[in-house]
Amino acid sequence: SCCVDEVAAEHVGAEAVLHYGPACLSPCRKLPVLHIFGQQPLDVGRCAEAFRELYPDRQSRVVVLSDVVYAHAMGELEQRLCPEYPNIVFSRVVCGDPPGPAPPREVWRFGRQFPVEAPGGLQDCAMFYVGAEGLALTSFMLTWNCCPFSSFDPATGCGRRETLNVNRALMRRLYLVERARDARVVGILVGTLGVVGYLAVLQHLRELLQQAGKRSYTLAVGKPNPAKLANFLEVDIFVLVACAQNSLLDSSDFYRPIVTPYELELACNPAREWTGNYLTDFRDLLPGACAHIELPPAVPAAEAVPDISLITGEMRAAHLCDPLAPQLPPSTTLACRDQTRALAEISPAASFLESRSWRGLEQQLGQTPVSKAVQGRRGIAIAYEDEGRKQP
Known about the structure:
metal-binding; single chain; iron-sulfur; four-stranded parallel β-sheet
């Protein structure tokens, strides 16, 4: 895993953690962490040659990023390219958050720190990534989608301009935002227990969904896969709370879409509008962060502006619910109500369960005749022992 397993370390009473291998460099909550990335081989001469081919203009403003396993060779690469390219900037791998507010001309994100000296900021810079194609590069490209990207793969020794159409990837993510607006039941997947702020963002998402009039269920299922999430068919969409690299999960193989906390904010917070900047770190959404936006006050249903789904074409609720309002209608009449139907009125999950013809193992006390235990079938499903085998 790219995240530090702080929970397992606490189980054994550890006072510090040594994390070996690839890392997303997300800050931990309690324990100090020392990262040992390893040192994968890098042909610095071939990498510098590929950089010159991609950027023939010696005045190009380029920020050099790298995978953590190649960070050991960035110093030698810097010595070769800096005399030729005066406007080149090399990022530095850092662990944890900055000690204080970052200077206005400095970027501190994804465990990388680098100054921005271009007059127009990052929009006037290009990005050169040293490493293989993967989640880290995808996260960089979506976050800094205003910058053209190039990469050098040390395994193949080839440099290229990244042809991944970021706009198409963003269109896919914005389609998922529209799916989140249509959803009535949202499952919050806990994908990390070690990144600082995950408890705060869980509470933030619950409050956001409550004010948006949606039901939410918090699920801790470990690493998500289609088989696990298929058990919750009553859930319309899932939101994954994980580190910045693992948040962008491809949900094409899942029965229900999986969105990021930022995409859920776009769907449920009317005050947040799409500006072209994509956020993969959920900590940017918390109060006190640079990208935090407060929810507007609740609007009565009679004064809400009608909203039409772009997917189904149906009208949907577009007003925010008052979080202090009672969730159940008050009743002063005593009446005997069916428990399942009573739950179905307040819970979409119970309503979905009621519509099923088979609801699991039921006791049916007094309805099943008493009988002695008998031996069942033995063998495997394709060839039980009591079944005759077909002759070839």
